[in-house]
# Entry
Amino acid sequence: MRVFNTTKALQEALDGVRAEGKTIGLVPTMGALHAGHASLVERSVGENDCTVVSVFVNPTQFNDPKDLQNYPRDLEADCDLLARLKADFVFAPTVSEAYPEPDTRQFSYPPIDTVMEGARRPGHFNGVCQIVSKLFDWVKPTRAYFGEKDFQQIAVVRAMVRDLGFPLELRPCPIVREESGLALSSRNELLTPAERETAVNISRALRESVDFAREHTVEETHRFVVDQLNAIEGLEVEYYEIVDGTSLQPVADWAESDYIVGCITVYCGARPVRLIDNVKYKG
Ligand code: PAF
# Structure
């Protein structure tokens, strides 16, 4: 496995890979890798001749400086894991390498990027599009892998790929969960053991709501999740939205769409840590 810190060295190596007619898989990450990321890397390694994993905590997608500062970082541990997973290249640029000039580009894909995370984290998806479009330009992947935990992020990236005509296949990959049901997230590292147990309620409520939804309306199902979680000390729901899985617009009735997903963001614990998760009701 080779580790690159500059776009020039990365691109030279990738030119060689492409010259041999090989396919390239890209797994963009912000590091602090866990089994969720590992599942993306494994899939890419299985489907491509060469897998590139980027490890970069992208400052432009953080709207809260404290969140950026607290974001876990451990490149050495990440590289150990990536070597075991048989990734070929790791790309870990500095901020000034990734952004030699301030990035003034504006990406806007309403209504997909204006709801849920987009409404609560101004500039977040713009920052995601800035770095992901740069990675796509540098790596020119055949396929790019994203986890479905960030459900809205995939929809935004899909809109950008269409808009800018990137010639690649997007590969959404299923959420990986602990045995307890907790969705794996780098942010889980910020939870105390007790908070981690409290956080398990998020996936439990979502899972139970799928059965509940069979006999109840969208509004009742929404209330079922929110009331249950807000009643637990240490949890506070920021939003729960039951949406069409393609347009990400709220649905009022289960008959409105064949693809319906519930997306949640919950604050957990004393710090507090902002956790996201989602569940599929239809589709
Ligand atoms: O999902 C993430 O970890 C980040 O948003 C991404 C896609 C690596 C861009 O920084």
Notes: Residues 28-30, 58, 61, 128, 131-132, 150, 153 surround pantoate (CB under 6 Å). Strands lie at 2-4, 24-29, 50-55, 89-91, 143-147, 169-173, 235-244, 260-268, 273-282.
